[in-house]
Amino acid sequence: MILLLIGIIICAKKSHENNVKTKNVIFSDQEGYYMYLPAVFIYGGFDQYPIHTKEQFGYYQNTKKVFTKYTCGVALLQMPFFLIAHAYCKFSGGQADGFSPMYMSLLDLSTILYVAFGFFLLFLALKNHFHKPILLFAFFCFFFGSNLYYYTVIDSLMSHAYSFFLIAALLYLTPRYYDNPSYRNSVLLGLLVGFIILCRPTNIIVLIYVLLYNVSTRESLIERISFYKNRPPN
Questions:
Q1: Mean pLDDT value of segment 53-69
Q2: Confidence of residue 66 (pLDDT cuts 50, 70, 90)
Q3: Which residues contact 157 (CB under 8 A, 6 or more apart)?
Q4: For residue 111, which of 67, 152, 160, 169 sits 20 to 30 Å off, Cα-Cα?
């Protein structure tokens, strides 16, 4: 299933690239999310980082350090792929500047893999509630009929595709947490929620799902409040 999803996304991306002349340059909001990686690993800090979107990013007050209002969650998810690209460029004698085609290719791959694994986790979360063919058809419609397609194939370095993966993981983990509120599941859930918010602060709305999961009546709400109030520390 994962290989099928990866194949569909790659074909869609290749189709877009064949019809639109795309530049291997990170700009605008994408740069705001990404700049943490080249700033830390290549340029020795934000005071040496070469701004690409100069009309959007400037320097922090009274300093020469580039200021970004974007959080570092996306950069952390991109980091393994960035480091692989950086190591390859360094050892092969390529352009190890954080913006050459090798970096762009690996970052695109990161988006494809995160979206594919997001759908896989969504499948695991829903497989006991729906028939498999219905789920696969729904996933197909969801990917091509929503803005997830755009943020996976075209603006792939924005936070949306990465948020999809994290929230899919949350949909998978939350029921398991309430079935077994162990220390391990508590830590995993806390880390996941924190990462979702770090990736995009407005994602904090997912806390409503976590806190009110399976709450549909006044009695179940009281029971949920009691669950948190009376739960002994681990």
A1: 91
A2: very high
A3: 26, 30, 33, 34, 74, 78, 107, 111
A4: 67
Neighbours of 16 (CB within 10 A): 15
> Which of 165, 153, 7 has the alpha carbon at shortest distance from 77?
165
Packing angle, helices 2-19 and 101-126, rounded to 10? 140
DSSP conformational letter for 72: S
How many angstroms separate the CA atoms of 196 and 187, rounded? Answer: 14
Partners of residue 66 on adjacent β-strands: 59
Place of tokens 């690993």: 41
State the Cα–Cα distance between residues 209 and 165, nearest whole angstrom. 16
Model pLDDT, residue 197: 96
Q: What is the dihedral sign for C-alpha 132, 159, 203, 35?
A: positive
Q: What is the dihedral of CA 132, 137, 139, 145, to 10 degrees?
A: -170
Domains of the chain by residue range: 2-171
Q: Residue 59: in which H helix or E strand, if any? A: none
Mean pLDDT of 140-166: 92
pTM of the complete model: 0.89
Q: Could you tell me which of 127, 130, 194, 138 has the C-alpha nearest to residue 166?
A: 194
